[in-house]
Design goal:
- This protein is an alpha+beta fold.
- It has 12 helices and 11 strands.
- The strands form 4 sheets. It has a 5-stranded antiparallel sheet with strand order 5-6-7-8-9, with no helix packed on it. It has a two-stranded antiparallel ribbon with strand order 1-2. A two-stranded antiparallel ribbon has the order 3-4.
- Helix 2 crosses helix 3, helix 2 crosses helix 12 and helix 9 runs antiparallel to helix 10.
- It starts with a helix and ends in a 19-residue tail after the last strand.
């Protein structure tokens, strides 16, 4: 059980938080992570409805139960400043939360894929919920009341029995990768070597499909946000399996993410094929915690996020970093690249970080996809200022040629009609709004951006 590891790692040798300064100078910043976990628990408990075992607000969705993992870490964490260690109230909420998941399962162990906006997307073995549920079981399973434990085990065995069926032959994508991580942990918890072997045989396929530039593509070129999903799954898998096959992929992913940061910690959006720009700081996840470059990324991003006020990250991320990290050497992002310049792939993108101005150019191109989730690669330039933030660019989109860096033809011919839920993304019109080919060059003075 992971609870033993937490007690050993954070036992009696640790000085209470109130008696020492919490810093982000070294990895892992255990005191900071403990504080972040403890800080969120009262709010999670206040969201619990003991009459149903459900957390959150209506309409209920299965993802509302993800907090049982965070509660399980708090319950297992023996630390002078953690009042929730072996708390009966916390354990009862965890137990009820898992029972509610079983009660909501269908005969195949799936849940309704509902969203808070009231939409229904079919039945699903929700990967994010299953992985948190099995990790919570790993921490508190032996302490659950007998009836609740029997119910949990019935539901977990049903769900993971179905999840295991297509492995290791299923295709690589972010959801199957996350499921494989959960499947390995379920194999550990229930002594099922077949499940562990299926997951272990699948993970090299994930590694093999990573681009040499450190990202996983879901069509053509990088996806930044979803790249974190792959890294998280491989990182937690490594914490359990200690499978060295994933380490080089995690190192490349860390290098990629460190390379595409603007000075405020946000990521260059023009290279992302699925999501537009966000000024928020993504601190990372356990996938970054097993390599020197990844640990440097984590420390750098946590410092930016925390600021002088030492703002706390959310408890779930803190709990994952506390449980699934490795100690070791740290290589900071500013030590990656040459004179503030990073090149991706074979001259596929360039980002230059300066004191006041930074910029990025994307040369990733692709045919316009007839798919609402994959954006058109048509916005190729980002311009960032240290005080103003992102002033030009912002990422890619659909049916908006005026957002394109270049167009040939009449941009008014392509637009979205309000209310149309099945638009034609590739109409035959006299307009080109994406490039066929592109490349970036390091020729010239990269410290200047001249017209």
């Amino acid at each position: 059980m992971k609870a033993l590891m937490i007690a050993l790692m954070l036992g009696s040798t640790i000085t209470p938080l109130a008696a020492q300064e919490v810093t982000l100078e070294e990895w892992p910043p255990r005191e900071y992570l403990v504080r972040a976990i403890v800080d969120d628990i009262p709010g999670i408990l206040n969201s619990y409805h003991p009459e149903t075992g459900r957390f959150g607000t209506e309409p209920w969705i299965c993802g509302d139960q993800n907090v049982i993992f965070t509660l399980a870490v708090a319950w297992s964490l023996e630390h002078p400043e953690n009042p929730f260690y072996h708390s009966d109230e916390v354990l009862q909420a965890i137990a009820g939360g898992g029972v509610a998941l079983v009660e909501a399962q269908d005969s195949a162990g799936r849940w309704r894929f509902d969203k808070k906006d009231g939409s229904y997307w079919g039945q699903i073995h929700m990967p994010w919920t299953y992985s948190r549920w099995i990790r919570a079981y790993d921490l508190v399973g032996e302490a659950l009341p007998a009836e609740a434990r029997e119910t949990w085990e019935r539901g977990l065995l049903l769900g993971f029995g179905e999840i295991a069926r297509p492995y290791p032959d299923t295709g690589v994508h972010n959801i199957p990768t996350h499921h494989a991580m959960g499947l390995y942990i379920a194999g550990e918890c229930f002594g099922n070597e077949d499940w562990k072997q299926r997951a272990r045989e699948f993970m090299p396929k994930v590694v093999a499909l990573q681009d040499p530039g450190g990202f996983w593509s879901e069509h053509s070129g990088p996806v930044i946000g979803y790249n974190y999903v792959y890294s998280e799954a491989l990182g937690i898998y490594y914490a359990y399996a200690q499978d060295p096959v994933v380490l080089e992929a995690l190192r490349r992913a860390a290098l990629f993410h460190a390379s595409v940061l603007f000075p405020n910690g946000s990521a260059m959006p023009s290279i992302d094929e699925r999501q537009i720009y966000s000024a928020g700081i993504n601190p990372g996840n356990p996938g970054f915690a097993h390599t020197p470059e990844g640990r440097g990324y984590l420390l750098s991003q946590l410092r930016r996020f925390a600021g002088e006020e030492m703002a706390l990250i959310n408890a779930e991320l803190a709990a994952s970093l506390l449980l699934y990290s490795s100690d070791g050497e740290v290589v900071m992002p500013e030590d990656i690249g040459e004179e503030g310049v990073a090149i991706l792939g074979d001259n596929d993108a360039l980002i230059r970080r300066g004191e006041a101005w930074s910029w990025g150019f994307s040369a990733y191109t692709a045919e316009v996809p007839d798919n609402r989730w994959i954006q058109d690669r048509h916005n190729l330039v980002d311009l960032f200022h240290e005080d103003l933030g992102l002033v030009a660019g912002g990422g890619n989109t659909k049916l908006q040629p005026y957002w394109s860096t270049f167009t040939v033809g009449d941009p008014s011919l392509l637009h979205h009609t309000p209310g149309d839920q099945n638009p034609n993304f590739t109409p035959e019109i006299a307009l080109r709004w994406t490039a066929d080919e592109a490349a970036v060059s390091r020729d010239g003075d990269l410290r200047r951006l001249d017209a």
